[in-house]
């Protein structure tokens, strides 16, 4: 953004700044989603009073050209010259929930990924491991045998064969259900959305771990629900805080990831799980257990799921094929026991008339043929060695004062810089040095800074992981030498 102020031309300085920014937006030099410089830094750069810049920004907001969100900044609104529609064009007013969602999205960092940058930011599994041939064969076989029946509406529960398989797995893990209790859904994502809508109405609140899976925060916004954070401790969510939170009448449920937490990578103990269920039971509030990476245990003893420890219908259990197989199947499941199941089926039917039977049936055949078990064996082996490479590199490369978790499964771990550092401040330097990570702030319900960051090992191969960590350690060392940039509260103890 180039702004030149001419103090001798008689036009007020504020007018000159306003015209310059407005001109940039209207000419497309500033695009939708672009962030305007913080008031303080622009005022310093232009050598004007902060109030002058603040007044200009307020005017731009009033004109509908930009949007401001406390704590995130000021962004150019969608649509060139937003607020001034082209003659004849229709500019619908988006719902408040969607506008908040767009704000959240704009506040998230966007960095282009070059081919030589280590992608340690993403939880997408490595496409090189997708079992394309085996899945194609399963798909052909099942289509040949079930034919036109797979082209009908799926109905709210989904393909019976796949539900039978899932009920068998769930039963083996201690969750006593039949195929009639399993509802197939479009990934765990749809399961989350269904569970939220099952128990909470717009304006209600939902207890979430802090930090938590960032897309749950987006889903809450989209559904006009408020996130109430329950801080994560080294051994899982703080149960005293959970108790206080669930006592509030507007808080309707708790969303949690007891195994391979995203972003922390931690797994809670059996004692913690039992105590958590006691808290929820006393409060009479349902618990949504997101077991999205349950098939990806890499070491250590499996812990019983919350759903296995509770037979009373308190726990809603979510499963997904996205991380263990491939995300494009969009197949997961949601299990709700007791009288709420009828509500879930009605909600699912109202949502989409059922998911794609074709893919669900192919998945069932893929599992029955033994291809899924073979695939899982291979993926776990590769991921175990990637995780170990990551931990080894961190041990060798990271300077004193940096700590990280050691996940027993899944694809992610959490690294913490010393107190006073904001991981977002490292992102650009890290990208330039050849590595991407997910900054901890995006897992906070209010987007506030975090000294933590998530590193994922599902996408990058071992050499890329090692080079990425060497690059990150270089950036961290440089930052530590420069000292903290801002005062931050302490994060999650790791
Ligand atoms: C905690 C968590 N739950 C759910 C999902 C989404 O899963 P799906 O692809 O099954 O919708 C993700 C994806 O990263 C996740 O991290």
Name some characteristics of this structure.
four-stranded antiparallel beta sheet; globular; alpha/beta; 16 helices; binds pyridoxal-5'-phosphate; 494 residues
Write the layout of secondary structure elements.
Layout: H1 13-26, H2 39-46, H3 50-62, E1 66-69, E2 73-76, H4 96-106, E3 118-119, H5 132-146, H6 160-172, E4 182-185, H7 187-199, E5 205-210, H8 214-222, E6 226-233, E7 236-237, H9 239-247, E8 251-256, H10 270-283, E9 287-291, H11 306-309, E10 315-320, E11 332-335, H12 340-352, H13 357-368, H14 371-397, E12 403-404, E13 412-416, H15 424-433, E14 435-436, E15 438-439, E16 452-456, H16 462-482
Parallel strand pairs: 3-14, 5-6, 5-8, 8-9, 9-10
Antiparallel strand pairs: 1-2, 4-11, 6-7, 10-11, 12-13, 13-16, 15-16
Helix pairs in contact: 1-3, 2-3, 5-13, 6-13, 7-8, 7-12, 9-10, 14-16, 15-16
The structure holds pyridoxal-5'-phosphate.
């Amino acid at each position: 953004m180039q702004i030149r102020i001419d103090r001798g031309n008689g036009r007020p300085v504020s007018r000159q700044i306003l015209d310059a920014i407005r001109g940039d937006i209207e000419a497309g030099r500033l695009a939708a989603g672009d962030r305007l410089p913080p008031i303080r830094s622009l005022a310093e750069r232009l050598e004007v009073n902060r109030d002058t810049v603040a007044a200009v920004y307020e005017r731009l907001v009033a004109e509908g050209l930009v949007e401001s969100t406390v704590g995130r900044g000021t962004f150019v609104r969608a649509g060139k010259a937003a607020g001034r529609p082209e003659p004849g064009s229709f500019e619908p007013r988006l719902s408040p929930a969607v506008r908040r969602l767009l704000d959240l999205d704009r506040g998230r960092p966007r960095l282009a990924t070059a081919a030589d940058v280590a992608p340690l930011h993403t939880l997408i599994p490595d496409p090189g491991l997708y079992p394309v041939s085996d899945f194609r064969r399963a798909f052909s076989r099942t289509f040949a045998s079930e034919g036109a029946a797979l082209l009908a509406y799926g109905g709210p529960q989904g393909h019976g064969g796949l539900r039978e398989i899932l009920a068998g797995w769930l039963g083996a893990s201690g969750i006593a259900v039949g195929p009639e209790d399993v509802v197939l859904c479009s990934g765990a994502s749809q399961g989350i959305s269904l569970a939220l809508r099952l128990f909470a109405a717009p304006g209600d609140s939902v207890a979430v771990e802090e930090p938590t899976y960032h897309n749950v925060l987006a889903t809450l916004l989209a559904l006009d629900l408020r996130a109430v954070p329950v801080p994560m401790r080294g051994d899982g969510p703080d149960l005293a805080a959970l108790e206080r939170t669930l006592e509030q009448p507007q808080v309707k449920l708790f969303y949690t990831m007891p195994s391979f937490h995203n972003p922390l990578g931690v797994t809670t103990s059996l004692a913690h799980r039992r105590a958590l269920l006691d808290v929820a039971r006393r409060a009479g509030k349902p618990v949504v257990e997101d077991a999205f990476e349950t098939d990806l245990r890499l070491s250590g003893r499996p812990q019983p799921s919350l759903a296995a420890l509770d037979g009373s219908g308190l726990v809603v259990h979510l499963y997904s094929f996205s991380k263990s197989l491939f995300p494009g199947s969009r197949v997961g499941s949601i299990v709700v026991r007791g009288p709420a199941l009828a509500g879930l089926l009605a909600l699912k039917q109202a949502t989409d008339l059922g998911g794609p039977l074709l893919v669900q049936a192919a998945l069932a055949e893929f599992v029955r043929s033994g291809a899924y078990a073979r695939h899982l064996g291979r993926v776990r082996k590769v991921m175990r060695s990637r995780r170990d490479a990551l931990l080894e590199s961190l041990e060798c490369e990271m300077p004193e004062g940096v700590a990280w978790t050691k996940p027993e499964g899944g694809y992610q771990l959490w690294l913490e810089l010393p107190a006073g550092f904001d991981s977002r401040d490292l992102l650009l330097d890290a990208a330039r040095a050849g590595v991407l990570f997910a900054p901890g702030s995006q897992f906070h319900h209010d987007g506030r800074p975090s000294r933590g960051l998530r590193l994922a090992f599902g996408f990058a191969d071992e050499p890329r992981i090692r080079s990425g960590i060497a690059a990150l350690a270089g950036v961290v060392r440089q930052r530590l030498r420069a000292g903290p940039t801002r005062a931050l509260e302490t994060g999650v103890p790791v």
